[in-house]
Amino acid sequence: DGTTADGTTADGTTADGTVTKASIAIDAPVTEISWPSATPESLAQDGGPPPIVVTVRAGETLYLPAMWFHHVSQARCPDTKEPAMAVNFWHDMTFDDRFAAAKFLEQAHARWGGSDS
User: Fold this and answer.
1) Rounded to the nearest 5 degrees, what angle is found at the Cα of 59, between the Cα atoms of 55 and 62?
2) pLDDT: is 29 or 99 the higher one?
3) 73: closest CA among 101, 102, 41?
4) Potential cystine with 64: which of 36, 46, 68, 117 (Cβ 3.0-4.6 Å)?
């Protein structure tokens, strides 16, 4: 029936549903994604705004709002020479009509003013 001597099934679960092992499967990409080539340097050359440069250290978190353009680079820690590692999490936001309406109202208020109440 596919159960090992310790009672674990081939998918790594026991009879009570406890997961006892995990695996990682790496798939080849179906298509290639073209990434934007804009960098802080190229934006400055094109007359864009100056970049906001942020250094995130061990134990710190940087939150970027949805749809916020950003450029990331990583380097070893200058003091300890330890390698850098980033972990990204993308919240699966739904950009539906409520989002579009909220953005419209926000921009209309900024442009034409109005009551904040």
Assistant:
1) 50
2) 99
3) 41
4) 68
